[in-house]
Amino acid sequence: MQTLMACHDCDLIQRLPHITEPGRVQCVRCGAVLHHKKRNSIERTLSLTLAGLVLFALANSFPFLAFKLEAQVRQTTLLTGIQELYTQGMPELSIIVLLTTVLVPLAQMTCMLYILLPLKFKKMPIGLPSVFRFLRHLQPWSMMEVFMLGILVSVVKLAKMAKIVPGVALFSFLALIFVLAAMTASLDSHLIWEKWETRR
Ligand SMILES: [Zn+2]
């Protein structure tokens, strides 16, 4: 079965050969990569998603940072930090932080799991096209690295005033950024659409 595809760089329409081995298909005119078939894409993405969910649970249940100022110790978790923003008169910011660092990454991983788990067991998830499109729309809204950068800047600034102890959640959060990036990169979207096309 051959599919017609327009190159996203130069718009040339060409027939995409059906490849079974991992590798790249390049545009005949401009050399852009049209399709990158990855080895064990579903299994790899699925394991990264599961790893991501474990890290997400850790990042949301353990202390993020602890501030030690003389005899006082204050601990924050990701969610209490967001709550703090809300009570300190920054409701808009707290909603954005909640959305971009907690809800969107969680939704991304849930969608991924919803799509990949049935596919792994040769089943077709109900409503795959809409869930997959929704997943694509979510991607620009995941801004965990921006949040991390903000944390680093404030830690450097606060370091002179108080002793700051990074918690388990901070390291889990950092690892989660990389795991989510790897999860997105290892997904072969052609393969997902191919599975949908050849469903029974
Ligand atoms: Zn091209």
Q: What do these coordinates show?
A:
- Helix content is 57%, strand content 16%.
- Strand 3 (23-26) and strand 4 form a beta hairpin.
- It is an alpha+beta fold.
- The strands form 3 sheets. Strands 6-5-7 form a 3-stranded antiparallel beta sheet.
- The chain contains 7 helices and 7 strands.
- Zinc ion binds at residues 7, 9-10, 12, 27, 29-30, 32.
Order of adjacent strands in the largest pleated sheet: 6-5-7
The number of helices is 7
Bound compounds: zinc ion
Shape label: elongated
* Helix/strand order: EEEEHEEHHHHEHH
Name the average pLDDT: 91
Number of strands: 7
Give the fraction of residues assigned to helices.
55-70%
The span between the termini is: 16 Å
Largest sheet: 3 strands, antiparallel
- The whole-angstrom Rg is 21 Å
The unreliable regions are: none
Strand content: 15-25%
Key descriptive features of the protein:
200 residues, alpha+beta, three-stranded antiparallel sheet, two-stranded antiparallel sheet, 7 strands, 16% strand, binds zinc ion
Précis, in short:
The protein has 200 residues and is of the alpha+beta class.
Write the layout of secondary structure elements.
Layout: E1 3-6, E2 13-16, E3 23-26, E4 33-37, H1 41-61, E5 65-69, E6 72-76, H2 78-87, H3 91-120, H4 128-138, H5 144-158, E7 163-166, H6 168-186, H7 189-197
Bound molecules: zinc ion.
